[in-house]
Amino acid sequence: MIGQIIVTAFPVLFLIVLFGGGWLFQRNNIDMDGKPPINKALFYTSKYLIIILWIIMVVQSWGLSIYFTKGTGTVKWIALTLWAFGFILLFIGRLGLGNSFRIGSPKESTRLMMDGIYRYSRNPMYLGVDATVLSPAIYGLNPLLLLLAVFVIAVHHKIILAEEEHMLKAFGQEYLEYCRRVRRYL
Fold first, then answer.
1. At what angle do helices 124-140 and 40-61 cross, to 10 degrees?
2. Which carries the bigger pLDDT value, residue 182 or residue 109?
3. How far apart are CA 17 and CA 19, in angstroms?
């Protein structure tokens, strides 16, 4: 029961932080919604699939059968560890961006974040998303969920590449030097 509550709490708390932050942004006249850096339909499809995969993980943790085959305790433990690791990266990454956070490319000037977790990964939030969308597929050993997760990961890689072009235009040499020091993912 405690495990199910924890699994459920991670996405709920993250969405509260995400949308609560959006509300605070609005109060300060900051538009949290940036411009989709890739095809708009592909961009939003991947974002909604994240939520769907999170819901599936929560449902699976509560024992509702979405399994392709029942995983062993070890497989479930790996999925839950990946789930927790992913959300920790999401929280740290989101909080580390502060007012520079956007869903998509910012429409206005933001700060280049290079400290905190961003000293180790240029994209800790995307790495966190990757971990959290893989978790439901591993938890239930479900190949359909794995295909959805791979789709989300591939689209987000495409988003990262487009965002890198934006960052290069916005921050120039400073961003290039940052890229030389810090890897895209790990």
1. 50
2. 182
3. 6
Are 49 and 152 spatial neighbours (Cβ–Cβ below 8 Å)? yes
pTM check: above 0.85: yes
Alpha carbon separation from 148 to 45, 47, 52 (Å, rounded): 11, 12, 10
Encode pLDDT of 139-163 as tens digits: 988 999 999 999 999 999 999 999 9
Amino acid (1-letter code) at residue 153? I
Give all domains of the chain, ordered by start, each with its CATH number: 2-181 (1.20.120.1630)
**The two structure tokens encoding residue 12:** 């709920």
Q: Which amino acid is at 137?
A: A
19-78 pLDDT, tens digit each: 888 777 778 777 778 889 999 999 999 999 999 999 999 998 898 766 666 667 899 899
Question: Which tokens sit at 89?
Answer: 């990266």
